Amino acid sequence: MPGITPTFPEPEPMILAVDLGSSSFRAAVFTPDGRLQPETLSRRSVVATMTPDGTMTYDATALFAAFTGVISRSLHRAERQGYVIQGVGISTMMHSLMGVRRSAATADQPDVSVPTTPVFAWGDTRSEAERENLVEYFTRRRLYARTGCPLHSSYWLLKLAWLRRHLTLREWQWMSFADYAWWRLFGRTCTTVSLASATGLYARREADWDEEILDYLGLERSHLPPLANAGAMLPGTALVPPFKKRWPQLHAACFFPPLGDGACSNLGSLCFSDNRAAINIGTTAALRVTIPREREPGEPPPGLWVYHLDHDHALVGGALSNAGNLLAWGRRTLRLPATPILEARLRQTLAEDTGLTILPFLAGERSLGWHPQATGVIAGLRLSTTPVAIWQALLEVIALRLAWIARQLETAGFLLDSTEIIVSGGVSASPVFATMLCQALGRPICVIPTEASARGVALWVSLGLRLLTIDRCPLPAGSWFEPDAATHARYRERLERHRATCLAMAESWSATLSDQL
Q1: Which of 217, 202, 196, 219 is nearest to 137 (CA)?
Q2: Same domain assignment for residues 232 and 343
Q3: Which of 184, 241, 376, 501 has its CA 20 to 30 A from that of 211?
Q4: pLDDT tens, 218-270?
Q5: What own/partner pairs with CB < 8 Å and gap ≥ 24 does 496-500 have?
Q6: Where do the Carbohydrate kinase FGGY C-terminal domain residues begin and end (predicted)?
Q7: Which domain holds residue 354?
């Protein structure tokens, strides 16, 4: 009508979540309450270099190109939908390490550091050769209790002790890949307690880098990223010129420093307190419980670790090095039927014992024995053993080892009878696998078909921007599975058989951490 100016509703603020996994990088837009906008999803595979000597590395330049590429594609798709990005969060794979040398500042890049070492991944075991040299120091100084991290090649302590035989550590700055990406974007670096606490160089009680460990390595604080304050963020206008020009859609957005994908997975599953525990099954797998810092244990439960989610919360749990990667090996190696047929056959044999005991350590072992040099074993093979039986045993052993971690958490008082377990990741595609996990745990589980780590970092940003409160975060719709006592008892017997086989094989591997402490 004449004289009336039409009004249009303000667009809902959106969150860009970037998820840096060990096999793919993803970026997508979420609503503030964690609803994925699937039309904005961008994904790029990343591939580690792996060799028989224990190498597992990534090329830093290729990773950074993948990182910026998924952001650009997701932003392009979001722009076509008219979405306005108010916040950006980054969830990243844990334990990566790289060395960076400073270079002269330029107008476009005020303080970037090149060249870099490769990005050493959690599965790079070459530093295991340093274990014998560090066992006495690690044990005498009670560093497992201090740092919450076992003496293992996935952590920075062993890696840096090994690297100093090849490099002058003090000539480099040491950081995770996500910290490096932040440096490339903003010309400055920092790290969150979420990432620092999973390095093995972080003193939990002091919530700071452990000065004695740094002194042992010949390093100073300036060789590591400074720890970000609670609530730290940077505006999009602080991006260095090339990215400020490339991403004008982010000028009004706030960037939050990267969090570990484990912490984000708990957030995305709404396992933000100990009334819920999170299991995530991806390339690897983990079971984690979030607890207030005041209840953080002085020593981790045997075989497990303690990290920090933020300045106020700790994560207690365990991680398996062999999950989705183990199943990928199985699919490549076994002559399996198509997925619908395979699921149908597994449903028929679910209650049967295959007679197989598998040690799944194709990528070594983290929780619970921490043997990096452990190898895979299939015991009980006969001429009558079928590929489907082997596949069933592969699925079962992942469930059994997660149940073993759960038992340790129960004994330590961190997994209560009333605690709900929320499961995310690849298990959502296989009801049979979910049933196995439920029966092995002997607990009800809720399986959510959600990218938990990406959703978690989106919720983290929403909470930081005060777009949401934790009590208003909705739990994604999922499917509940209930155990029965008789089947659970049979899975307990299989777990005991698995544990006995692990102990029998341990003599052929290096001594367990529990033997050293």
Answers
A1: 217
A2: no
A3: 184
A4: 999 999 999 999 989 999 999 999 999 999 999 999 999 999 999 999 999 99
A5: 497/357, 498/357, 498/358, 498/359, 498/397, 498/400, 498/401, 498/404, 499/404
A6: 277-459
A7: 324-448+484-516
